Amino acid sequence: MGIEDQILNKDSTLKAALKKMSLSGTKCLVVTNKEDKFLGTLSDGDLRKAILKDSNLDTPITKIFNSDSFYILKQDLNYDSIKEVFIEKQFDVIPIINEDKTVHKIISWKEVFSDKPEKKSLDLPIVIMAGGKGSRLEPFTNVLPKPLIPINDTKTVIEHIIGTFLEAGASLFYISINFKGKIIKAFFEELNPEYKVNFVEETKPLGTAGALKNLADTLHSTFFVTNCDVVVYMDHSELINFHQKNKCKLTLVASAKEIIIPYGACSLDEEGFLKEILEKPSLNYLINSGLYVIEPSVLDLIPQNKAFDMTDLIEKMLKEGERVGVFPIDDNSWIDLGQWEQYRDAIKRLG
Q1: What is the pLDDT of residue 351?
Q2: Which of 67, 284, 319, 344 is the most buried (most CB within 10 A)?
Q3: 85-117: buried (b, 16+ CB within 10 Å) or exposed (e) per residue?
Q4: HSE value, Cβ hemisphere, 13 Å, CA-based, for 133
Q5: Residue 346 domain-assigned?
Q6: What is the pTM of this model?
């Protein structure tokens, strides 16, 4: 990763910042002006707070980055003492600045402590909701259940989903099954994976959340729930930290989606006459990705053996005053496999 991958211009938008942070994998970006002079830093926490307060992703980062951030002048750089600074201040990165205020180097926590690689400690239960018919992917799903549709010649949809959690350190998976459930069970029996797979069998379709009730006596800690037609590439530990820090009972991962209207939109004045024509305007939304972090107490809100969707659960939680968090991610971090157009796009991206 080059230094340019970690630097952001002060006039950049929230969307551009989220994308660069996602691609670089860093938790903090360095902000400069047009002359490449150092101005400050932008943390992932401040960026996500700004996105949640202002859904317009075209808003510039000018007012949210830290203009009083710590840095070290190049001539004062001492590698023997920089470890102490990282430990004391708990910085993710430390900018090293030239005398002319340009950025000489960006030193990260991982770089300094490379002799002690971070251990992947995330080992929470993962529930994959795989009981649906996948009617939007017919006729494939007339033969194969949606989770077993192949992506190119390598892995199935559900293997890609599981792979993202294996990289985070997870080892225990619960898979809810109904439609063509025997085929899914047979697949994993033949696969014989090193990780643990338990099946939650629905005797009838229970929606996107109803099957979770069958795990009420099994899940006693924070757990993940994911739809079986989405693949999300992200730092799961950041999601857990966000969830716990904000004391949420449920946190959903939301993709920052920009929708461009391919026409000239008419803007009217108060009297109904044309004010201006907006050429190809864009709309910005935070789209529910289908990935959640949930506390086990939430399962008490799900009815027994009844069809119940995740939207029903969230609506019930909000009515009861429970805190539901939203964790924004870049749209490129989320792959939706639920429809043919998205499936074809996934083949290109995962090929």
Answers
A1: 58
A2: 284
A3: bbeeeebbbbbbbeeeeebbebbbbeebeeeee
A4: 7
A5: yes
A6: 0.81
